[in-house]
Amino acid sequence: MLTILIGMSASGKDAILRELVANHGFCEIVTTTTRPMRKGEVNGKDYNFISRKEFEKGIAEGRFLEYRSCNTIWNGREDVRYYGTPKMQLNPEQDYVAVVDVQGAKDYVSYFGKYDCFVVRVNASEEVRFKRAKRRGSFDNDDWNCRLAADRLAFAEENTAQTDSFAVNYSVANEGDKTVAEIAERIAIAADTYGRKDHSEIDRNPCQRWGEWREVSHNQLLAELKEDVSVLMNNILEYENLLQNLSKREPYPDFDIEKGLKHIQLF
């Protein structure tokens, strides 16, 4: 199972990732970037740090399963930074974790398969995120403003909405009221449970979606519930009509029409 952490800048994704790796047996997918290395980071562990020229060569050769560029301002100068994940094969017996953006998560799901990916959104208020970013050893105000603008676009509702091919499976709040260890443990348990599901049932029965861990707005939940109830009621009416029609014909030897109708009425 591959757990994918997404969230706005300084929401705490990297800290959660390190906890999952250190204490829950996850293996980190180390992504590649052209951004400057921050204080305390280790090349090959936190990221694979390479030059812009080398990254662009990798793009041309098709070596990345996903990548993105980010326009920013650093030390008063415009800059373009790349982030990406090299193509790879995963061991199905191992749990993995990666930090990417929303589009990267979609590319992961497309590449590895949606039932082998568990997408987790890490949420934190802008105030909390700003304080965390300031504590980093390489804070730049212009760069931070560029990140805020990019986050608002990337996490707009139309970009994170559930589709047939993508969904945020779990959401956690990381405002500082819970420790990183507590949050990581919740994610690890949820990912393990998700990985044990028979996901074929989710496709056949829309109501199975409600067994997944998703924290969304009440309006979105209500809209999805109405949609699921509508589908369920249509199915019930179809079965009821079928049984009524069968009751007018010669019944099957071992098929109890009355029992079938009573079963439907239980809904």
TrEMBL record:
Cellular component terms (Gene Ontology): cytosol
Catalytic activity: GMP + ATP = GDP + ADP
Recorded superkingdom: Bacteria
Database matches in InterPro entries: GK/Ca_channel_bsu, Guanylate_kin-like_dom, Guanylate_kinase_CS, P-loop_NTPase
PROSITE patterns with a match to the protein in the record: GUANYLATE_KINASE_1, GUANYLATE_KINASE_2
UniProt keyword terms in alphabetical order: Coiled coil, Kinase, Transferase
Coiled coil start-end: 222-249
An annotated Gene Ontology molecular function: GMP kinase activity
Guanylate kinase-like domain: residues covered: 1-188
Pfam family, one: Guanylate_kin
Gene3D superfamilies assigned: P-loop containing nucleotide triphosphate hydrolases
Recorded family membership: Belongs to the guanylate kinase family.
Function: Essential for recycling GMP and indirectly, cGMP.
Annotated protein name in UniProt: Guanylate kinase-like domain-containing protein
